[in-house]
Amino acid sequence: MDGGGGLWGAPPPAVESLLDAPFSDGWLTPPPPPPPTLSGTALFGYPQGSFENFHEQDLAPLTAQEMLALQPKISIANTGSTGALQGLSTSSVTLDRPAADGYNWRKYGQKVVKGGECPKSYYKCTHMNCLVRKNVEHSADGRIVQIIYRGQHTHERPSKKRIKVCGGLSEHLADFSGSVDTSIRSQSDYQDYCRNPIVSNDTMVGRLMENMEDGDEQLAGSSDSQQEHDDEVRTDDRAAADASANERNPPA
DNA sequence: AGCCTTTGACCAGCG
DNA sequence: TCGCTGGTCAAAGGC
């Protein structure tokens, strides 16, 4: 995406909802608690985090079952906004949505690492005096496989009016962002999101729709207990975490 | 006008 | 010391 004025552009609201709603906790089967060693690192084995991740290129690696489950839902979600998916950029290098965690991020670099199979994007928090950085690593198929937070935010999340996420659930997201630590989502919620669709996409979307209707209250609940861990860099854990993530969601 | 992404270059750490 | 790799900078261009 060619940013220009917005951190993450303006994905169709419905799809935004699909993607961001899973950050709310407490839906679908209770996920296993995130390994403490994953603090500051989010692992991904499933398209997530952004509308862009759901364009055809990124759906490709999904299993047929997942495709069947996902695409119709997206289509339904986009009812009234037909062509939304077609309007997506086919560029899949930078596909995550850092702003989805409630903070504003500016991409300051991108590097292809690991033999060119893993493009890695580097983000800074745009808040002045905030030195938090975030590395987003993509798999070869464009899916986010890992997010690494570096440092701690020295400020509150931007007010919802300033969060440059767009569309229907953006306000929900903003509220959610105001109540849940960024990195907590990066860990448990993202992981939950990674797992849940595999459990049941129907359920996932159903919950999503519920979230859309129920609003902030469902989004508000979260634990702050992990916050103190969240922004620490635990690069030592990356390998193990990555391995475990791959076990759960082996790359396509 | 402001803020963003893109992208090549530069720098530092490591084997 | 050299080469590789990963992280950052900064100019250019877009919205």
UniProtKB/TrEMBL annotation:
Basic and acidic residues bias locations: 226-240
A GO CC term assigned to this protein in UniProt: nucleus
Region (Disordered): 19-40, 216-252
Signal peptide: none
Main localization (coarse): nucleus
Record localization: Nucleus
Protein name per the record: WRKY domain-containing protein
Top-level taxon of the source organism: Eukaryota
Annotated TM spans: none
GO molecular-function term, one example from the UniProt record: sequence-specific DNA binding
Ranges for domain WRKY: 101-158
UniProt similarity note: Belongs to the WRKY group I family.
Keyword Electron transport recorded: no
Species of origin: Zizania palustris (Northern wild rice)
Key words, A-Z: DNA-binding, Metal-binding, Nucleus, Repeat, Transcription, Transcription regulation, Zinc
